[in-house]
Write a sequence for this structure.
């Protein structure tokens, strides 16, 4: 692995880390929003 | 009056507890008691027992379908490569790639545990208690989700992206071939400062084992500056946030938040700027 190849390789690991973190975070937040909506709907039904 | 109040409160609580409470009431033997309640035994415990049996059965079938990856008996002669911790500890093991072992193995897990314990004490906001909300607690939910997601992605990396010699393996890399040794030479930030700014390596003061150089003081300044800026900006821009929390709670919250954000920042600095440690002391490195 020569020095030129190393930088994009390490950059790709960093990008993977960031995108992965935000994807998982997005999933959690989407779930929180869905729970909130469902909770409101449940309350209105009662 | 107070009876009426507590009845409506319990009704509200039961409507908030969602599907499981409704299921208990639907399947309840005997009449519904005062304040819309049913007995724990047998109504709740019966359902819990059935759930437990179902969960055990599902786990049993999962084990038969996908057995635990046990290896041969441990031998002092052969160390497996890579040696991976159980999946739930792989986040910690992955942190060891980027941090000093004392920091990754002791300080950061301690911060996580203490931070989680502190949440109920440093969060005076009553919104979101007993019901689901995102719109009323955007900062809290986003901050917590970020930390949890960071933990998860480290586990994902440890489980699926680390192979022989703990090298990085993409799914298309051959897992049986060793990755070539990296040409990256990691350097401490103070060494970079010394060479780029032409600073002397000679210590200006010696505190026991600690030979303090000018570059060393600069790295201390950058490290403490990160926290100082992080503490000050929300104080200046979101004064209402500060006023609501008060001095102690604000500082605890910001310290935990900045430490959490510092983890990916340090990982990035190491990956992209090839910096091994931002701050070097004889006792710990960051």
């Amino acid at each position: 692995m020569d020095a030129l190849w190393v930088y994009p390789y390490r950059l790709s690991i960093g990008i993977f880390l960031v995108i992965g973190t935000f994807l998982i975070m997005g999933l959690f937040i989407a779930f929180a929003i869905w729970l909130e909506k469902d909770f409101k709907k449940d309350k209105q039904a009662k | 009056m107070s009876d009426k109040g507590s009845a409506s409160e319990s009704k509200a609580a039961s409507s908030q507890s969602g599907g499981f409470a409704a299921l208990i009431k639907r399947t309840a033997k005997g009449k519904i008691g005062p304040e819309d309640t049913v007995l724990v035994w047998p109504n709740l415990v019966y359902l819990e027992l059935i759930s437990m049996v179902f969960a055990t059965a599902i786990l049993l079938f999962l084990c038969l379908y996908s057995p635990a990856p046990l290896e041969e008996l441990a031998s002092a002669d052969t160390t497996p490569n890579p040696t991976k911790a159980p999946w739930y500890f792989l986040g910690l093991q992955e942190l060891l790639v980027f941090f000093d072992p004392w920091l990754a193995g002791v300080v950061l897990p301690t911060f996580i545990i203490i931070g989680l314990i502190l949440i109920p004490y440093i969060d005076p906001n009553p919104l979101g208690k007993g019901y689901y909300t995102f719109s009323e607690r955007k900062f809290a939910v986003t901050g917590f989700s970020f930390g949890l997601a960071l933990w998860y992605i480290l586990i994902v990396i440890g489980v699926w992206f680390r192979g022989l010699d703990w090298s990085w393996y993409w799914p298309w890399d051959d897992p049986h071939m060793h990755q070539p040794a990296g040409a990256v030479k990691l350097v401490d930030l103070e060494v970079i400062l010394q060479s780029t700014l032409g600073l002397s390596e000679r210590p200006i003061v010696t505190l026991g084992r600690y030979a303090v150089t000018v570059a060393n003081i600069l790295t201390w300044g950058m490290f403490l500056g990160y926290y100082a800026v992080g503490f000050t900006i929300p104080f200046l821009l979101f004064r209402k946030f500060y006023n609501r929390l008060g001095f102690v709670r604000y500082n605890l919250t910001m310290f935990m938040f900045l430490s959490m954000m510092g983890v990916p920042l340090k990982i990035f600095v190491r990956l992209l700027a090839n910096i091994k440690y931002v701050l070097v002391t004889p006792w710990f490195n960051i």
